[in-house]
Amino acid sequence: MSNATSANTIRPDEAAHFGKLAADWWNPKGSSAMLHKLNPVRLGFIRQAVDSHFATDPRGLRPLAGRRALDVGCGAGLLCEPLARLGAEVTGVDAAAENIAAARLHAEGAGFAIDYRCGDLGQLGLSGFDLVTSMEVIEHVADKSAFVAALAGALAVGGLMVLSTPNRTTRSRLLMVEGAEAVGLVPRGTHHWEDFVTPVELHDLLDAAGLRMGNPMGIAWSVSRGLHLSDDLALNYIVTATRKD
């Protein structure tokens, strides 16, 4: 949910909002508790996508060994560290200096050599990544087209991109904004419903950047299962993208 970066896309107020959460990012019962619940669902999708795209063994522990991964809008590294465990050489980018400081500290304590960068993706000159991820980020940037173009520019030929974002529906407004923020499940000011991106809009953004979008999977919630992958795209969805060429 961190605000990420690209050419002319950083919103200072968004970076400041997420920067204030940096110290609490790794607390599973703190302000980022929902991210801790969401992360295993994302990772399950990413692992399946990696195995399918790179033809790796689903039983292997390090399917990303020998590959470079970039997480954009990485926050304090909640996804970067699992990607490192999967064998990747990981780079994380975020707009908030506080998040990068927290990410570096946590990675050092956990023994991970992750390259964390603070700044604007479009200005960092990063390229050639086999895997590019950006989770709950595109809804926070000022220029979505420029942001997606910067993501595409970082992706290697033959690489895989994975994005997730809330869908702009009546249900997402009621549950994710008016509901979750009102009762404290998500910090107030995290979501701006009008900035949510529909699957059709994301398809068009990716298409314009020379990318082909895969079939989206919903991230749904139920009392019995909690957060889980689903065919229901109404709240949140996750999707792959690859280069057309």
Fold and architecture overview:
- The protein is an alpha/beta fold and 245 residues long.
- It has one domain: 3-Layer(aba) Sandwich (Rossmann fold).
- It is built from 8 helices and 9 strands.
- Helix 3 links the parallel strand 1 and strand 2.
- The N terminus is likely disordered.
* Count of DSSP strands: 9
Q: Unreliable stretches, pLDDT < 50, 5 or more residues?
A: 1-7
Quote the average pLDDT: 87
In terms of DSSP E residues, the strand content is 15-25%
Cα separation of the termini? 30 Å
Q: Report the CATH topology name.
A: Rossmann fold
The domain count comes to 1
Reading off the top of the CATH hierarchy, the class is best stated as: Alpha Beta
Sheet with the most strands, sense and barrel status: 9 strands, mixed
If you compute it from the alpha carbons, what radius of gyration comes out, rounded to the nearest whole angstrom? 16 Å
H-E string: HHEHEHEHEHEHHEEEE
Number of helices: 8
The helix content, as a percent range, equals 25-40%
CATH superfamily: Vaccinia Virus protein VP39
CATH architecture: 3-Layer(aba) Sandwich
| C-alpha geometry | globular
Assign the structural class, choosing from mainly alpha, mainly beta, alpha/beta, alpha+beta, or little secondary structure.
alpha/beta
